[in-house]
Specification:
The protein is an alpha/beta fold. It has two domains: about 110 residues, Aspartate Aminotransferase, domain 1 (Alpha-Beta Complex); about 180 residues, Aspartate Aminotransferase, domain 2 (3-Layer(aba) Sandwich), CATH 3.40.640.10. It contains ten helices and 13 strands. It has a seven-stranded mixed beta sheet, sandwiched between helices. A four-stranded antiparallel beta sheet has the order 9-10-13-12, with helices on one face. The chain has a two-stranded parallel ribbon with strand order 1-11. Strand 3, helix 5 and strand 4 form a beta-alpha-beta unit. The relative contact order is 0.19.
């Protein structure tokens, strides 16, 4: 376990997240428009919204709309033929329900990682641990916040969840083929790479019999008409995805160069967010906040500072603040 990670007893209790601009405004002033929010790993240049038709808002989504989204997702992520796809209103909605796929037991979640998984399992009576043996295991791939990549052999529990919310920046590393195996669930987030977190769209991919309880839990029409149309269009736009990956990689290296020149050390991350080790994370956060730039720190570390990528107009502000 990392020396700055939560202990197994703490997993599932602390549910800190990025965002929280309202709290930052209350302390450091300004308006939301004044702030540059780098506390999340959301693409700062989102997918351009297509035109919507009135029926997207007024009609219950039909099977054709769900099928179009399913087909686009299947092609993009190269989903195995034996696996099904369940669209939901955000990956978080699926994370909250996944513990119901098996009777409560021990779930292995290696810290530090995205804390909603441990919280969801703990809320449904599971014992959260960082050791084997366990009846369930969660792998955030690549991991948040350090970008760690897992191997297929690590999905070694009867119920294994592979959260690939940030894997669209490195699709060659995907473990999507595991979705063809019983008891394996691969999660995908739409809001991160496509930069449309407010749309609330996520996917669970696994064998139909594995996903069946989740499908029952979220019910029909779980995804809105606008989300279905926008999601299907965006997932099918491979040219945009390729160009975006190139830009994100360049911007991630630019951010690394900027931060290391100011004394920070690279601790990991992905091309959507970077993790740095600094001398005093709270001081760095306050220092940036004075310039109305919001960053991410963690309750389990005094030295971890995470930054998302600035939008094109935000680089000069960040450089000036540093």
């Amino acid at each position: 376990m990392s020396p700055c990670a939560d202990t197994p007893a703490d997993l599932g209790k602390t549910r800190d997240h990025g965002g929280g601009i309202d709290a930052a405004i209350a302390r450091w002033g300004g308006t939301r428009a004044d702030w540059l929010d780098l506390s999340t790993g959301i693409n700062p240049q989102p997918y351009p919204l297509p035109d919507l038709v009135p029926e997207d808002w007024t009609a219950l989504p039909d099977r054709a709309a769900f099928a179009a989204l399913d087909q686009a997702a299947r092609r993009l992520w190269q989903v195995p033929a034996a696996a099904g796809i369940l669209a939901a209103p955000g990956a978080s909605a699926l994370i909250a329900r996944i513990p119901a796929l098996a009777p409560p037991g021990r779930v292995r979640i290696d810290a530090p990682t995205y804390n909603e998984h441990a919280a969801a399992f703990a809320a449904q009576g599971w014992q959260v641990t960082d050791r084997a043996p366990a009846e369930a295991r969660v792998l955030v791939h690549p991991n948040n916040p350090d970008g760690r990549l897992w191997q297929a052999a690590d999905a070694d529990a009867p119920l294994s969840v592979i959260d690939e919310s940030f894997c669209d920046v490195c699709p060659q590393q995907s473990l999507i083929q595991l979705a063809a195996q019983p008891g394996r669930v691969v999660l995908k987030s739409f809001g991160k790479f496509w930069g449309l977190a407010g749309l609330r769209l996520g996917f669970a991919i696994g064998r139909p019999e594995t996903l069946a309880p989740l499908r029952d839990l979220i019910g029909p029409w779980a995804v809105s008409g606008p989300a279905l149309r926008i999601g299907a269009r965006a997932l099918a736009d491979t040219a945009w995805a390729g160009t975006t990956r190139t830009r994100l990689a360049q911007d991630a290296r630019r951010l690394d160069a900027l931060m290391t020149a100011r004394g920070a050390e690279i601790a990991g991350g992905t091309d959507l967010f970077r993790l740095y080790t600094v001398d005093a994370a709270r001081r760095w956060q306050a220092w940036l906040a004075e310039a109305h730039i919001w960053s991410r720190i963690f309750p389990y570390s005094d030295h971890y500072l995470r930054l998302g990528l600035p939008p094109a107009a935000g680089w000069a502000r960040l450089e000036a603040a540093l």
